[in-house]
Design goal:
Length: 562
């Protein structure tokens, strides 16, 4: 399939997902879907949850943090006991404490950062019963937060924002599990590996060479890792590995999987607040960022790699270094943008070998907050935080008290939104500054100069923005990077979620003010432009000095920025 047809087919698939998957999600989250009630109801009894009761934002937050804390502890414990557990045909030992800490935090938060080689570090049990389980839990938690915030806008005078346990369980049972099951079968049908038979041992009778080929229950994990925008690969090569991503069809389906739920959540937003135009406005801003970043990243990769050009090698097909010949340059660039502008973090090529400007595209897509369309759940609630700041700015311009969807936006709401937006940039910049100042941080990059700094900056950006992709030129499996990376992941996840839930509770308790002649409309192209400007300004002000020291300097050192 040509690149143009790939884009058209992707657009059509996402349009269908927006309308029909979005409508299905509204029904699921409203509690109108019951075809798995025979599984759902026993779970409520087991957890002692009353499906008819709702929670305040404080109770919702406590439930979420309690569940996430237990998830981290259980994941950590199973990794430390790996050598004693079944389904370990490779006879792999326990995971070290620092790596187990980083991995457990990463998978419980939808980050899936991997400071390890999957096929050499994780047993089948760890992959299936530990990490893959978190691939279901973590996106369900983010969907719950998103729908809680949407309820905050939709309700008036309400002391509650829903029930965390119901939102999470329904998201898993009715959304994530069924789609993942079907897509796992598709991946197997296309050649994805799914076996518990252990590695394959091959002996070439002609040459006498022997080879051990790692295998495992790959396809089942591949489906949920993409649908839930998790991204952690069974193999170190991730989606560049033919066992994970065997054909052009699976490569295209991967794009559909990790974009569909974030896109559909804009429909959910519009439907639940009573105006699809509001959801379309948010989606339009997301499409602008995604299209723009795809265009300039693809253009950068279609050009020559300056390091290769310096060696006198012609590059008529663009920067093919680190790209899979099965997918090509343009599709690899599209995949990279999609993976970094969601919280997926998958890779079907080596991001460290992108051109300086191509790498800049991947990095800055995360720095904007992963809002185009962002991760499952996290994309929509982050964009709504920016929308609150945008209406505040718009209200100041016209001398009116800011309103959004009939809710007056006061100092408390703006402060909560600002705190949630600034958590990740502060975390990234502080930890990157520490890393380039201490010996343990400076010795890890495989490159010196601006590219080495880019590897450090990219790593903390990816972890704080719960993405999980990497430039891969950083030796991350060290105590320093495992511990600081885990801190970045925790802050980037929960120091954002708690203010978002507080904001949901504050908004739900407010009344709805009827629109007047002076109300700034938030479903028009003008507001979409304002929202885009706010995202760009916040991202530019916080990260431009840092990227100027990395990919920008690297590009200029080769004689041009583009």
């Amino acid at each position: 399939m040509s690149f143009g047809l790939t884009l058209v087919a992707l657009f059509l698939a996402l349009a269908v997902a927006w309308r029909f998957l979005g409508a299905y999600m509204v029904a699921v989250l409203d509690g109108r879907v019951h075809w798995l009630a025979f599984v759902e109801r026993p779970l409520y009894r087991l957890l002692k949850v009353d499906p008819e009761s709702e929670q305040s934002w404080q109770q919702y937050s406590v439930s979420l943090l309690l569940f996430s804390g237990v998830s981290i502890l259980v994941t950590y414990g199973l990794l430390r006991l790996q050598g004693l557990l079944p389904f370990n045909p490779q006879r792999l030992p326990a995971v070290s404490p620092a790596l187990a800490w980083n991995t457990s935090v990463a998978f419980a938060t939808n980050t899936d950062w991997q400071n390890y080689v999957g096929e050499q570090t994780m047993s089948y049990f760890s992959q299936m019963a530990n990490l893959a389980v978190q691939n279901f839990f973590s996106p369900a938690v983010a969907i719950a937060v998103a729908v809680a915030l949407i309820r905050g806008f939709a309700r008036k005078g309400s002391p509650t924002i829903g029930n965390f346990w119901l939102d999470m369980i329904r998201s898993i049972l009715y959304l994530l599990l069924p789609i993942s099951f079907v897509m796992a079968l598709v991946f197997v049908g296309e050649g994805g590996v799914q076996t518990l038979g252990g590695p394959a041992h091959v002996h070439d009778v002609l040459s006498g060479a022997a080879q051990t080929i790692p295998r495992g229950p790959v396809a089942s994990q591949e489906a949920i890792k993409q649908l839930g925008t998790n991204g952690g690969g069974f193999f170190n090569a991730n989606s560049a590995h033919p066992f994970e991503n065997p054909t052009g069809l699976t490569n295209w389906l991967t794009l559909v999987l990790f974009l569909s739920i974030p896109v559909a959540l804009t429909y959910v937003f519009g439907k639940m607040v009573g105006s699809l135009r509001q959801g379309v406005a948010v989606l339009a801003a997301m499409v602008f960022f995604f299209g723009t970043w795809t265009a300039f990243t693809t253009a950068a990769e279609k050009g020559p790699n300056p390091a290769v050009a310096a060696a006198g090698v012609l590059q008529p097909r663009g920067n093919t270094v680190g790209k899979e010949a099965r997918f090509g340059v343009s599709s690899s660039a599209l995949f990279g943008v999609a993976a970094t502008q969601t919280s997926d973090g998958s890779a079907n090529s080596a991001y460290d070998s992108f051109t300086p400007v191509g790498g800049l595209g991947l990095m800055t897509g995360m720095m904007l907050g992963e809002v185009s369309p962002g991760g499952v759940g996290s994309g929509i609630y982050t964009m709504l935080l920016y929308a609150i700041v945008a209406v505040f700015v718009g209200g100041l311009m016209v001398g009116r008290t800011p309103e959004y969807l009939g809710k007056k936006i006061g100092a408390k709401e703006v402060k909560l939104a600002a705190i949630a937006i600034l958590v990740a940039p502060i975390t990234v910049l502080v930890l990157s500054g520490i890393a380039v100042s201490v010996h343990a941080g400076k010795v890890a990059p495989l490159n010196s100069g601006p590219h080495g700094f880019s590897e450090i900056l990219y790593a903390f950006t990816s972890q704080a923005e719960t993405n999980g992709s990497a430039f891969a030129g950083l030796t991350g499996n060290t105590p320093f990077y495992n511990i600081t990376g885990g801190i970045a992941i925790l802050l980037g996840r929960y120091a954002v979620i708690v203010p978002v839930l507080a904001l949901a509770g504050t908004l739900a308790a407010k009344g709805i003010v009827p629109a007047s002649a002076g109300t700034v409309r938030t479903d028009t192209p003008m507001f979409v432009g304002l929202l885009i400007a706010v995202v760009l300004i916040v991202g530019g002000l916080t990260f431009f000095p840092a990227v100027s020291l990395g990919p920008v300097v690297e590009a200029l050192s080769h004689g041009k920025l583009y």
